[in-house]
Amino acid sequence: MKLLLTILTLTTLLFGATQMGLKGGSCTLAQKGAVTLNYHSTIYKNVTYSANKKSGKNFREIFVGSSMSVGKNISLKILDYKPNKRFKGKPKTGVFMVSATINKKVEHIQMAYIFDKGIISATGVLNKTTIGFFTEVDYSFCTVTTK
Hints:
Elements: H1 2-23, E1 25-39, E2 42-44, E3 48-50, H2 59-63, E4 67-70, E5 74-83, E6 92-102, E7 105-116, E8 119-126, E9 129-144
């Protein structure tokens, strides 16, 4: 009986994976909660975050075009991102291309990101000083719609 149940479960999972490959699946990602910014050894928790989109299928949809600021002196805008090759069982990594404005001086920097267990954190260098941010990302597993 256990063997039959195991075979049935595996068959269902394989069918779902095959269908997702043929008909497409959908995942939902959304930035969740507060954004914390770190610059020049100071942690800012009063960050204003303006999302490009409330939710999307990938990081490009929810992060590219989004911005964050602390008062009028520090602001970041995510211009683009490039994911690294994905390895099964490992955190997702890549690079955000960011426009950073500090005291009205604008620089374009790269920030390496890591997404692990629902937290995305990105770190880069601006004016020879580390700058970074982190926030939660709500994610749901891919679902498959069959006709």
